[in-house]
Design a protein that fits this description.
Ubiquitin-like (UB roll), 27% strand, 5-stranded mixed beta sheet, 15 strands, 308 residues, 4-stranded antiparallel beta sheet, 3 domains, Substrate Binding Domain Of DNAk, Chain A, domain 1
Length: 308
């Protein structure tokens, strides 16, 4: 059981990370914390006292408590629905007007160029759905193909950006600077999906690729968070299905039973019915706790048919 102080310590880094987005939102709107009349908390996470205190400290005022943070999500959905069908309508004592609501791109999107930078094709806070095209050219003489590398983020440098993906694209060989290549980004039609189209004017070649937006946490950050959440005693193992050769890096909670591990591995699709979990050729019993086994950090587990 975690104490409140321990829990607050675990989430402190993540709560602090909300400061920059709040500052950025105010900056985009040319406002300061003192210009905000009311603060509406949305979502279950805002029930956490540390989150409320952080918001109170940032804005210098008490957040609004009249609206349920869970119900407000449904209310927002209702308002979004109303905006589609309600026209301006005058009623006794009040005027109802359409509500202006816009979905926007949360992070800028661009492609890596030959000078090592990532110019933006779609900038952050652009309303969606959106299709935006940028014209590019060949950097070297008589290139017959190029690689389209797509990044998201606000930096001009790829090492500070989130990498979405890349693909090769054939073009008509021409002297440097003479090719005309359109790169088109389309976003907002499918949640979390970016549609990328490359079109070479000279050859007529067109290639279309779908890319998924990446999470904001790096793999290293996710691993660090998992270890924190498991009270810094998580056991990292590599799970291998000996029949399919599928592998999975996995964190074991020392307090979990093997049956819980079994259920989780089945949900992840790497473990099938009739298979056992083996450590150093010994099959683990479902009633065992992980901490009562000899499993070592950095070791491996094998998934194979149960012993008769």
């Amino acid at each position: 059981m975690l104490s409140r102080r321990e829990f607050d310590g675990l989430i402190a880094d993540f709560v602090e990370r909300t400061r920059k987005p709040m500052e950025q939102a105010l900056n985009d709107a040319a406002l300061s914390p003192g210009d905000i009349d009311d603060i509406l908390l949305v979502g279950g996470t805002t029930y956490i006292p540390a989150v409320k205190e952080f918001v109170r400290e940032f804005f210098g005022k008490e957040p609004e408590h009249k609206v349920n943070p869970i119900e407000v999500v449904a209310l927002g959905a209702a308002v979004a629905t109303l905006k589609e069908g309600i026209k301006e309508k005058e009623t006794p004592g009040k005027i109802r007007r359409p509500v202006e609501i816009s979905d926007v791109i949360s992070r800028s999107l661009g492609v890596l160029t030959s000078d090592g930078t990532v110019p933006k094709i779609i900038t952050r806070n652009t309303k969606i759905p959106i299709r935006q095209t940028q014209l590019y050219t060949n950097s070297w003489d008589y290139m017959d193909e190029g690689i389209i590398s797509v990044y998201q983020g606000e930096s001009m440098y790829p090492e500070e950006e989130g990498f979405l993906g890349e693909f090769w694209f054939e073009i008509e060989p021409k002297p440097a600077g003479e090719s005309k290549i359109d790169i088109t980004f389309g976003g907002g039609e499918e949640f979390g999906i970016l549609h990328v189209t490359a079109h070479d004017h000279d050859s007529g070649n067109v290639r279309k690729v779908k890319m998924e937006a990446v999470g904001r946490l790096t793999k290293k950050e996710k691993n660090k968070w998992m270890k924190k959440m498991l009270n810094m005693h998580a056991i990292k193992v590599q799970v291998v299905n000996v029949e399919t050769e599928d592998t999975l890096n996995y964190y074991l909670n020392p307090n979990a039973h093997i049956r819980d591990v079994r259920k989780d591995l089945m949900r992840k699709g790497i473990l099938s019915k009739g298979m056992g979990i083996f450590y150093r050729d010994d099959e683990l019993d479902d009633e065992q706790r992980v901490k009562d086994t000899a499993i070592k950090d950095g070791s491996g587990l094998e998934l194979r048919q149960k012993q008769k």
